[in-house]
Amino acid sequence: MNKPVTISTGFSACPHDCPSTCALDVEIVEDGTIGRLRGAKENTYTDGVICEKVARYAERLYHPNRLLKPQKRAGAKGDGEWQDVGWDDALDEIANEFIKAEQTHGSETVWPYFYAGTMGLVQRDSIHRLRHAKRYSGQYDTICVNMAFSGFHAGTGAMRGVDPREMAQSDCIVIWGTNAAATQVNVMTHAQKARRNRGAKLVVIDVYKNATMKSADLGLILNPGTDGALACAVLHILFRDGFADRAYMDRYTDDPAGLEAHLADKTPQWAAEITGLSVEQITEFTHLIGKTPRTYLRLGYGFTRSRNGAINMHAALSVAAVLGCWQHQGGGAFHSNADIYQLDQGEIKGLEHLDPDIRQLDQSRIGAILVGEEDALNGGPPVTALLVQNTNPACVAPEQRKVISGLKRDDLFVAVHEQFMTETAKLADIVLPATMFLEHDDIYRGGGHQHILLGPKQVDGPPLCRSNHFIIEELANRLGVGDQAGFGKTENHLIDQMLKSSGRGSLEEITNERWVDCQVPFEEAHYLNGFAHPDRKFHFRVDWSKVAWNRPHESMGLQGPVNDAPQFPDHWTVIEEATPRHPFRMTTSPARTFLNSTFNRTPGSLKREGRPEVL
Question: Average pLDDT, stretch 264-288?
Answer without folding.
Answer: 98
